[in-house]
Amino acid sequence: MKNKYMRFFILLSFIILFNSTFLIAQGPKSSLELEPFKGKKKEMQPGERTEPEEFSVKNTRTDIERKEQRNFPQYSIGLKGGLVYSKISIQNEPPEGNKAGIHTSFMLANEFFFSKSLSLEIDLGYHKSKFKPGNNWVIISYITVPMIVKYYLFDPKSFNVWLGTGFEPRYRVDYSGAQDSEVEKLTESLILTAGVKFPIGDNLRFMVDSRFLLGISRAGGSTQGGDAKYREFMILAGISYDIF
Fold it and tell me: Which end of the chain is more exposed for a tag (fewer CB within 10 A), N or C?
């Protein structure tokens, strides 16, 4: 269990370092620079005063011009929220006794673009899973850190569709309807996602995100000793803003 906690905190540290490094690297750049005058120099005559070397002003591309030439944003931040359909799969137990439930999820989304088609999204979310493995409804609250590689099919500046896959660790912060020994504090899932995004203003976009989560580590266990893993489907909607 200690190894799981260490892995979770190392992952959070890596995400913070990645965000900081990316933002520093994209800091403001000067729009003007000086370069030595490249014209033909005047020959000096005897007794003529020496003038300082001439300089010409060279215009560099502004951030706006660079963004227009890239034809895609480099970093965007957003908020999204929606519904989670959760079901638990328990080893060695028939599925008929398990009921699915619906709850909510909210997250802060950070998306880093490497090209007009490829991006990495790293979210920080608050997620609730609700299901009924027996006689009682169980509700578990998690802090989640989904990491998704996304592939865009069309122009990022217009209506676009993406497909993606990723990995999500989640840390339990609260629960009800179950014993502590039946709920793991840290669990992990694979993610398959598809969604749409379209502009609604300058650098502002509306998005709809659908995700299927497949548990790959033990989320808990039953009193009979069977391991439980998540199967979840999410529908999220929100807005994003292109920072640069």
Answer: N
Task: Give tens-digit pLDDT for 79-93.
Answer: 999 999 998 887 766
Q: How many CB atoms lie within 10 A of CB 150?
A: 21
Q: Give the residue from 174, 169, 173, 123 showing the smallest Cα distance to 149.
A: 123
Q: Is the distance from CB of 93 to CB of 226 less than 8 angstroms?
A: yes
C-alpha to C-alpha distance for 152 and 89, rounded to whole angstroms: 32
Q: Is the pLDDT of residue 9 over 60?
A: no
Domain residues of the chain, as ranges? 32-65, 72-242
Structure confidence at residue 235 (pLDDT):
97
Helices assigned H by DSSP within 126-173: none
Q: Compute, in degrees rounded to 10, the torsion defined by CA atoms 89, 95, 100, 106.
A: 10
For 56, 76, 111, 148, 230, the CA distances from 243, given in Å and listed in that order, are 32, 5, 10, 19, 35
Backbone angles phi, psi at 200, to 5 degrees: -130, 5
Query: What is the CATH number assigned to the segment(s) 72-242?
Result: 2.40.160.20
Q: What are the C-alpha distances in Å from 31 to residues 22, 54, 121, 137? A: 21, 20, 30, 60
For the chain, what percentages of helix, strand and coil (3-state, to nearest 5) are there? 15, 55, 30
C-alpha closest to that of 231 among 243, 213, 244: 213
Residue 32 pLDDT: 44
